[in-house]
Prior knowledge:
The complex is a heterodimer.
Chain A (H helix, E strand, L loop, with lengths): L4 H18 L5 H28 L2 H18 L2 H15 L3 H19 L2
Helix pairs in contact in A: 2-3, 2-5, 3-4, 4-5
Chain B lengths: L12 E6 L3 H14 L3 E6 L2 H14 L16 E5 L1 E2 L2 E2 H10 L5 E6 L4 H9 L4 E4 L4 H29 L1
Parallel strand pairs in B: 1-2, 1-3, 3-6, 6-7
Antiparallel strand pairs in B: 4-5
Amino acid sequence: MAMPQHDQDADVDAGVAAAIATQFGGDAVLYHAYAATCTVQFVVDRAAGRAACVAGDLSALRLLAHNLKSALGLLGHDRASSVAAHIEERAGAGDLHAACLSWRSLDAALSRLEAP
Amino acid sequence: MTEQSGPGMTGALQVLYVEDYAPSVVLTRDSLMRRAPDIHLDVVATVGQAIERLQRFEAQADDPGLAESERTPRYDLVLTDLNLTDGSGLDVLAHVRTRDLQLAVVILSASNEEDTAIGARDAGADAYIVKGDAYLSRLPDDLRAALAHFRTKATLRAYPRHRA
């Protein structure tokens, strides 16, 4: 069963707060500057992910998922980071179908992060 | 025993930074500007670009007449991501060690797999940093420690020649 939206939002807020405290040493300005850069990059990444799935380019998809795993983890979006890790693993194993199935989920998560 | 001193221990540090993911470049640069403004990054995005810079770095040592505009910085250290578009940070490391360039090399990775870290160390990396909790706040100290590690190794290698 899907988690209610307000619970998801609370999860995200807690993840962001934890990320600022642990990953950024309490520096919220640095965190938000990084988040702004990522928001721009995610538009590019979503297009690249879709293109990689269409082209069956596992290598590109694996590297993209690897970068997103790290970026989303730093931002405190642990669920999305876990999905990216799964895609990286599946792409590395040559499983295009599973990797691209999970890409749809990650693409949706990234689109929510792009929203103002 | 001679105490380690000079550039890199406490002073300015010139770093060739190899990273292809734009947000990582911005984050590392912003973080270092706040925590360690004396650490300067020269950023390239690919293994190919890194090797081209390192070839220029190597060549200019033998060419004092080279114009200032054609010079690369006098690097102290190479900081490279492990997974890059056109290869691996280990390829950059291999180039540095094969050419015996006097540079510390630090591998930066999201992977905390022990085998990968050991492999990088065995290949001559001076440090392997995982992008985990609080790595940004530790990065300036980790870079300086890696440079100290490299210089200690170089001193130990040179010592028998001094005695001969």
